[in-house]
Structure formats: structure tokens, C-alpha cells
Amino acid sequence: MNFSERVYELCRKIPRGKISTYREIAKKLHTKSYRAVGQALKHNQDPKKIPCFKIVKANGEIGGYSGINPKNISKKIRLLKNDGIKIKDNKILNMKNVLYKFR
DNA sequence: GCTTTGACACTAA
DNA sequence: CTTAGTGCCAAAG
User: Fold this and answer.
1) Domain-by-domain residue ranges, chain A?
2) Quick check: helix, strand or coil at residue A91?
3) Catalytic positions of A, please?
4) Which residue is nearest to nucleotide C9 (CA to C1')?
5) Average pLDDT of every residue of chain A
6) Which phi and psi angles does A79 have, rounded to 5°?
7) How far is Cα A50 from Cα A58, in angstroms, rounded to an integer?
């Protein structure tokens, strides 16, 4: 199982109404490659199977979605809101409440 | 097989 | 609050 696949697995484990961060995933994979996590997601991006919109930055910002295009960012925000996440000015509110912790 | 890139993180100023 | 700099590591070139 390569790096990317493990990233996808973790994404799928995130329950509805919760989110996670690139950092948390990297930690769970026992690496500090936060950036590589994002790389993996953008490359494969299988929205049908992988809720990659649940992955945000550690500081509560949204990050990107299928690149860093603002249009897709909006879509990501809409998906998150639809999942019960509150967002204000491209930042997550109540991070602590919605952040899903692995392990 | 070395160099660059990037959906990030962290600290300091 | 914003910039600027440094670290990170898998993938792409």
C-alpha cells in the first residue's frame, strides 16, 4: 500500500459531520509530510469514494480543492457546510468541535 | 537519479 | 492582523 492509498483510507474513516487536517493525517501515517498528503489527494481525487473536502489546514483555513482555484474552493465550502460545518470567511468555526482525531 | 514543486505547518518579526 | 523565512517529503519532471 503506497502513501496515497493510505491517505485515501483515512479520508474515508472520517465520520459525517467531522473533518480533519493535513497535519493529522500525516501524523497518523507517521510522517511529517503534510504537503505530500495534499499532493496525493489532488492527484487521485476520487470524490465519489473519498470525501477529500473534509481535509483542511491545521489553522482552520480551507486550503484547496482540485487545485487552488477559488471556484473549487467555494464548492468545497459548500460541501462542508452541507456536512454541518460552519465556515466564515474561508475559515472553519468551532474547529475543536468538528475536528476528527485519529488514533 | 537529481531537481523542482506544492490542496501545508510553524516561528519570528 | 500580514509577510517572510525555513522545514517537510512524496511525486512529477
Assistant:
1) 3-98
2) strand
3) 52
4) A33
5) 92
6) -60, -40
7) 20
